[in-house]
Amino acid sequence: MKDRELDYLRAWIRKGDNDLKNVELILKSQDEDSPYDTVCFHCQQAVEKYLKAFLTAKGVKFPMTHNLADLIAKCAVLNKSFLNIEIEAELLTPYSVEVRYPDDFYMPSRKDAEEAYNTAMKIKDFVLKRMNV
After folding, report:
1. Which of 40, 47, 60, 95 would staple 55 via disulfide (CB 3.0–4.6 Å)?
2. Is the pTM of this model over 0.85?
3. Where are the domains of the chain?
4. pLDDT tens for residues 48-84?
């Protein structure tokens, strides 16, 4: 992998890590009015970025989508084990849009946010273990 490609790959990972840093800051708060909707959104975004990092590492072009199932399907062509995380990842997909706009307003609970974070961390570990960088 060329230096420029490696830098681009690392940028995807760094962006995912930054999403999770935001999540961790909010979850550390004991404020009952914490923005758990944005926690869930950032969890979905992190997973999306780790999946895109994997595809980048493999030299595969991917669609500009927030649908994690679509990204996992592309990853699974290269490594069938990605099918093992499809159901968990799909639980995060609604957080990409539904919690961002008042038209589909849904306010996740702290429990929802913690579950989203645990799922994102599990998928992050899964994806990074399958990248040879």
Report:
1. 60
2. yes
3. 3-129
4. 999 999 999 999 998 888 899 999 999 999 999 999 9
For the domain made up of 3-129, give the CATH fold. Four Helix Bundle (Hemerythrin (Met), subunit A) (1.20.120)
Q: What is the 3-state secondary structure (H, E, C) of the chain?
A: CCHHHHHHHHHHHHHHHHHHHHHHHHHHCCCCCCCHHHHHHHHHHHHHHHHHHHHHHCCCCCCCCCCHHHHHHHHHHHCHHHHHHHHHHHHHHHHHCCCCCHHHCCCCCHHHHHHHHHHHHHHHHHHHHCCCC
| CA angle at 23 for the pair 84 and 78, rounded to the nearest 5° | 25
**Listed residue (56, 86, 84, 53) closest to 68, CA to CA:** 86
Average pLDDT across the chain, whole number: 91
